[in-house]
């Protein structure tokens, strides 16, 4: 009798623990699938590091993209955000998929540009997506009703810059920035002589920590800028260097003895958007590193000298754009 009882107890315990296990497993899988399947409105929140995106505009319900769509995980500042946008644009052009960018990306870019054609995710906010089904790159994409989620640091230059003229059209500056940047250039040219404008971007602040960490390099010293400037001075008669920087103090000091260097921040209240418009209005470019300086040169569309860093993005761009080069 005693044995039978203990066997029964054991059986009951076994049954209980198995069912608890089954219950746990079931609820876990249920949770997992419900986490993967999201509305685009929920999905968009995971793509934006900045949480305070504007309230949704009410769109007439759009049809949901039948083939999946291209989008991007958005972060960092203007230069990176431009790569994120143009990577989505380029991959959509290459694959034929629809493209949508998160609103946090559009909000930054709209400060500078007004001809962006890629719509924002809130236009399809009611659609359902399975987060796990996105390919993480063009190479991973199976070409079969699958979307692509581009990583925030993918910077797909090889895809987008094939259409570099169209890229420049996407990044058409707002009228007030065009006007202001032309005013600035006209201020520099006091006489009526024809000048060759070379835009120079000097990036320092955050790169003094980033360069040693990522490339074991120090900031470019002043001799890089001087020799790049000399290259243009030898090539053209009337060159003026239009310089913008995140460290105006350093630039004013370093270039004070060069009468053909104009540090924009010394004379004008500027912003990253205006600085970019000014650099893009120049004929040729010098920049050291960073996506922001890189974009200023791509948009200017002239000859470009950059600081040599093995394996960095400008090296890749130089393989795609014929007039980009470096020296050291
Ligand atoms: C986007 O990037 C952030 C930060 O790196 C990450 O937390 C988030 O999960 C990413 N979103 C997706 C959908 O992968
Ligand atoms: C500047 O840096 C270069 C290497 O990039 C180095 O050869 C040169 O000696 C440096 N010049 C000065 C003045 O520190
Ligand atoms: C050089 O840039 C200035 C200022 O934007 C512009 O007016 C001029 O037409 C450009 N010159 C050439 C040869 O493109």
UniProtKB/TrEMBL annotation:
<dbReference type="InterPro" id="IPR002516">
    <property type="entry name" value="Glyco_trans_11"/>
</dbReference>
<keyword id="KW-0812">Transmembrane</keyword>
<comment type="similarity">
    <text>Belongs to the glycosyltransferase 11 family.</text>
</comment>
<dbReference type="Pfam" id="PF01531">
    <property type="entry name" value="Glyco_transf_11"/>
</dbReference>
<keyword id="KW-0735">Signal-anchor</keyword>
<comment type="pathway">
    <text>Protein modification; protein glycosylation.</text>
</comment>
<protein>
    <recommendedName>
        <fullName>L-Fucosyltransferase</fullName>
        <ecNumber>2.4.1.-</ecNumber>
    </recommendedName>
</protein>
<dbReference type="GO" id="GO:0008107">
    <property type="term" value="F:galactoside 2-alpha-L-fucosyltransferase activity"/>
</dbReference>
<keyword id="KW-0325">Glycoprotein</keyword>
<dbReference type="GO" id="GO:0005975">
    <property type="term" value="P:carbohydrate metabolic process"/>
</dbReference>
<keyword id="KW-0808">Transferase</keyword>
<keyword id="KW-0328">Glycosyltransferase</keyword>
<keyword id="KW-1133">Transmembrane helix</keyword>
<keyword id="KW-0333">Golgi apparatus</keyword>
<dbReference type="GO" id="GO:0032580">
    <property type="term" value="C:Golgi cisterna membrane"/>
</dbReference>
<keyword id="KW-0472">Membrane</keyword>
<feature type="transmembrane region" description="Helical">
    <location>
        <begin position="7"/>
        <end position="28"/>
    </location>
</feature>
